[in-house]
Amino acid sequence: MRRLLTVLALTLLALAPARAEETLRVGDQRGNARALMEAAGVLDGLTYRLEWSEFPAAAPLLEALNAGVIDAGGVGDAPFTFAAAAGVPVKAFLAFRNRQDGLAILVRPDSGIRTVPDLQGKRIATNRGSIGHQVVLAALEEAGLPADSVRFTFLPPADAKLALASGSVDAWSTWEPYTSAAELGGLVRVLRDGNGITPGLSYAVASEAALTTKRALLADYAARLARARAWALKDPAPYATAWSRLIGLPEAVPLRWFGRAQYRTVPIDASVIADEQRIIDLYVRAGLIPVSRAPRAEAIVDPGFSEALAAVR
After folding, report:
1. What DSSP string runs through 15-84?
2. pLDDT tens digits for 67-116?
3. So which residues are the signal peptide here (predicted)?
4. Which residues contact 196 (CB under 8 A, 6 or more apart)?
């Protein structure tokens, strides 16, 4: 027995360095999760290495995940849906709901466009497959207009902002922090935000490979991220300070963004799955996702991380 215990102890010691070297590679957008978790102080005591990669938007983050460069990341519901429909092996394992003031169709302050029907025939800049794309489609449906009643110009946010300022497009549909920065700069007027027409969902997502091989790490990361979200919901100011320092934008931008968004973590339950299915159906109706490629919402989520969230709540 003593010999068996000695062998077991030596085996555990041999395995310890390998476990300590485990790495979870997480993609972040504009310092979002990283700034939040660092400001909230939830990264102490990690038993694995957390490796961050920064991306300007969800599309390149999801491309990196598809290529196996990262294991997980945070994205909006729209790009996640497009990626899943395109066959990217990704699933959502944690969900967040927020108000949609910062997801908005923007026009110049002096624009004659006053209502969504005024957009007919106009040029709108946004990222293809982004939540900006989503809110335009939802706003058109609300107004009883077809998806092809506007002309899309697909541009990344920085280029779209310049296109709107120069007059080469009539509107810009975007998200935070771009909306708050443009509003505070007096550069835009909100024509329609996403409240009431989009579900206000975003996700922590992971590759199917990571969900199998790094599940314990993802569960720990999910619990820490949920704790950080709960901390920021009580007082967004410290998070805004950390985010501003990391990204280099004035604190007024994240204060406006976080204060009105009111991000809260929710389990992937029946209501989240139903809202995700509505997003899929919206894109099918708009002709952006072929019926043959449209996934079922329950097939692209992993509800098995509810225990990590329950421990936080």
Report:
1. HHHHHHT-EEEEEEETTHHHHHHHHHT--TT-SSEEEEEEESSHHHHHHHHHTTS-SEEEEEHHHHHHHH
2. 999 999 999 999 999 999 999 999 999 999 999 999 999 999 999 999 99
3. 1-20
4. 100
In the chain, how many domains are there?
2
What's the mean pLDDT when you consider all of the chain? 90
Q: Which amino acid is residue 266, in one-letter code?
A: V
- Condensed to tens digits (0 to 9), the pLDDT of residues 127-144 reads 988 899 999 999 999 999
Mode of pairing for the β-strands spanning 171-174 and 123-126: parallel
Amino acid at 177: P
Asked, for residue 263, whether it belongs to a domain, the answer is yes
Same domain, yes or no: 123 and 77: no
Within a domain: 119: yes
Length reported for the chain: 313
Specify burial of residue 292 (Cβ count, 10 A radius: 0-12, 13-18, 19+). exposed
DSSP 211-280: HHHSHHHHHHHHHHHHHHHHHHHH--HHHHHHHHHHH-S-THHHHHHHHHH--EEE---HHHHHHHHHHH
Last residue of a domain, one of 193, 218, 238: 193
Read off the CATH number of the domain in which 167 is found.
3.40.190.10
Q: Tell me, yes or no, whether 188 and 234 share the same domain.
A: no
Q: Which residues pair with 152 in a beta bridge?
A: 124
Measured CA to CA, the distance from residue 45 to residue 313 in angstroms comes to 20
Residue 12 is assigned to a structural domain of this protein: no
From 11-20, 162-171, 196-205, 211-220, the region with the lowest mean pLDDT = 11-20
